[in-house]
Amino acid sequence: MNTLPKFDPTVFVPDFARVPGLLDEWSKAVSQRFDMSIKAQQRTFRKKHIDARVQSFNPLKEDPRGPAAAEHYSGGLQKLS
Question: Is 36 inside any structural domain?
Fold first, then answer.
């Protein structure tokens, strides 16, 4: 599986390297926000009885090039006339 190893700060700000462990804490915080957002969307879908898959994903935990992406793009394209 080719997941992202960690989240880097915006524009690779070097300030994070000055404090030991800060880059790891940043990455964990961003990952947790992805997870919270995905769970909130899933709850909303269930509450509204929407049978759909949340389109967001956490790239630290899921490979963006997995079968779901391949299936979506290969099955959803139609030739325009």
Answer: yes
- 5 belongs to a structural domain: no
Overall domain count for the chain: 1
**Would you list the DSSP string of 23-59?**
HHHHHHHHHHHHHHHHHHHHHHHHHTT-----S---T
Whose tokens are 């909303």? That residue is 44
Asked if residue 64 belongs to a domain, the reply is yes
What is the C-alpha separation between 62 and 13, in angstroms, rounded? 25
pTM of the shown model: 0.70
pLDDT at 79 > cutoff 50: no
